[in-house]
Write a structure and sequence with these properties.
There is one protein chain. The chain starts with a strand and ends with a strand. The chain is globular and about 45 Å long. The protein has no helices and 11 strands. The protein has about 130 residues and is an all-beta fold. The strands form 2 sheets. Strands 2, 4, 5, 6, 9, 10 and 11 form a 7-stranded mixed sheet that branches. Strands 1-3-8-7 form a 4-stranded antiparallel sheet, with no helix packed on it.
Amino acid sequence: QVQLVESGGGLVQPGGSLRLSCVAPGFTLDYYVIGWFRQAPGKEREGVSCISGSDGSTYYLDSVKGRFTISRDNVKNTVYLQMNSLKPEDTAVYYCATAWVGKQGRIATPGLQYDYWGQGTQVTVSS
C-alpha cells in the first residue's frame, strides 16, 4: 500500500529547475529519515538526497551537490527537493521513501532501510 505521494516532476530543458514534493500523511516526520531516490532506464536505483526528520541533517549524492536542496516541513508532513541547473543525466523517475528510525533518530543516508515508498514522479531533462 502506497502511503507517500510525490509531485512536481515534468519536462524541462537543461539548466532548468523543478521542485519535487513528497507528502507523507499519517507520518510523524520526527521519527523518520526521508530520502529521494531516482531510477533511470537501464540504471540501478540511487539515493539522491536524504534528510533527518528530527535534526534536519542531510545527505547529497556527489553529482547533485550544489544543485539540489532537500528540505522538510514537519507541520505539513512534506519533504521537498529543489532541483536547479538540471542536466540530461538527471532524467529519471524520482521516488520519495521513509526509513523508520524512532525517537533516537539516525544520520540521513540512503543506506537505511526504507520501508515506505511513493509511486514516483517522472523528471525529464531534454532540449
